[in-house]
Specification:
five-stranded mixed beta sheet, binds ligand BES, alpha+beta, globular, seven-stranded mixed beta sheet, 21 strands, binds zinc ion
Length: 665
Amino acid sequence: MTSLTFDAAIFDSASAFGAPDEVDHSTLSSSATVPVNYGKYDLKIDFDKQQIYGSVEYRVGLTPSSTMTDNTELVLDSHHLDITGVTYYIKAHASNWDNSIDPGAACEWTLDAAHGALGNALRITLPPVSAATIDGGQAMWVKIMYSTTSQSGALQWLPPEQTAGKQYPFCFTQCQAIHARSLLPCQDTPRIKVPYSARVRVAEPFTVLMSASGNYKQTPAMLPGLQPNDPSERGYVFEQQQPIPSYLICIACGDLAFLPTSDYTGVFAEPSVVEAAAFEFSETEPMVAAGSLITGCDYKATWGRYDVLCMPPSFPYGGMENPCLTFVTPTLLAGDKSLATVVIHEISHSWTGNLISNQTWRHFWLNEGWTMFLQRKIIRQLYNSKAEADLDAVVGLTALKQSVDGYGDDHDFTRLLPNLAGGIDPDDAFSSIPYEKGCSLLFHLEQTCGGHDAFAQFFKAYVATFGAKRHVNSHQFKLFYEDHFKDVPACQNVDWQVWLLGTGMPPAHPEDQFDRSLVNAAMELKRAWVLNDQAIISASGDLKDWKTGQLLVFLNALLQDEDAKEIKDDTLRAMNDQYNFIASGNAEIRFRWQKLCIRAEMEEIIPHVVIFLKEQGRMKFTRPLYKNLFGSVMGKATAIQTFVENKDIYHPICAKMVARDLELD
Ligand code: BES
Ligand code: ZN
């Protein structure tokens, strides 16, 4: 890496692709002018009231020059929170957990009117502080007393019937992208990254887990400041020493068990699920180790433990990269470890996303595109197979094409850098585009610089440099690439304008570089079914020795290719007789098979679709199945009826999206 001048050029310059002081349109907080730099959360989980309440305390990053003015305003994001009081302290350290020692002094505060998806700005007027105080090592700490409400979109409260054990309720958070503000008041922008410590109280017999160290082997303890004789006053303590953005804060609470998968990795789940989860994710440690090797940054030294929490079925995503504690959907439990790529993906975020965070949500492709890229490098390394990594990429390209077709070729959300100004909810811009168009760009840059080895060195340099800086925007990334490969003329001529700001499919496909050995068999079988070539079909047998990825390519091709559009119900029935897709325990296969049968208007599939829709709430499956059923002739009424009867089982984000898809809102 060259010199400080390089640093300055990268981190302080600006262009249409990003600027260090770029406005984050997804926050109302004073993150740019009055940032916070440490968080201390003292919370209590109340299942009866379905509330989390308590206090959060922030150290305010006042500099000596910013301290003398009156009316400095600290602004935090909040959404659907009930704020009850704000106090401040001037002190060197966060307070002891025992609140009675120092009540602080009251602060003036107001809550602005709601601003759509962005929520309400909480404005706190800070008293003036002298420069000498700050120079002397003291800081301003601000403490907010609050509680969540039934509207808090980050939270889902599950009654016992919606858990595997059916005995205890469960609650969990999902903060990405901008829901942390409905869990606790915070500067809800990835730009602000802070270490935190937390104490969470809950009644027996619940376990609490957070995105921090403290999950592993922690037994509930009576902590200072709690009532020793009150069994509901048990506490768990957590500490995240790495600075993390608010979207990576998480809490999960329920009846949970643990099984190790190595000395620093393991699995949490409800007791009846934990063995299946430990089997499914038994390869976690080698996956983490491969990530450390490829990035050149040691996982353990950075984050400590890596545990997976297998969630109840309403968890709306495949996985969520909460630091030290990835959340995954139980739909990954295929019984043959074939869907553990999602865990590889979440592990990859440890470097691309969690260590190096997108500066704002406009640059989301730098989180997800890099993570898809790293996921595929880990697959290649772990299985010693480029063909397997490329199989994964081919499945991804289908998803990309589907997203672009869904939005339309010239939609703003098909850009790598979409426009999120005007209160756009980042949830609405979510699709495969940042993932797969982003990954295509990285493949293209890899090809341009000379291939796998040259780019592997660049990737390590990227992790070292931006890992130290903690953030990245697209402009910084471009300059870093151009500087790293300054002696390679082709690297100076990348058409960034088209890649980052162009709409539609990416301008170049890396496909000609793919090892298609696994993909070809799947495409050939698809052709055979389209042409009714019985010789090839019967030679294919029952596909039991195929990789799941190959089956997905086969089913994707049937769903997407022009020549397969006319496939009729009779052909699908014959296919099912041979492969028994309908009984597959693999959610990805089940999903695609059901979509095919809905398209062919096969009424016998409807009960299977309804079962799948009632059994889980992962948006990737739930939304398209409802939408396709709704769009079919045979299933429109069933789609509406099933949703109306079951909407309470879905996560609030999922329910909102499906309601919109079914034109019910
Ligand atoms: N961070 C995402 C999930 C997410 C993104 C939640 C944006 C909320 C807003 C996670 O890492 C992810 O990408 N999950 C994928 C996994 C897949 C790409 C392997 C998923 O959930 O399907
Ligand atoms: Zn991701």
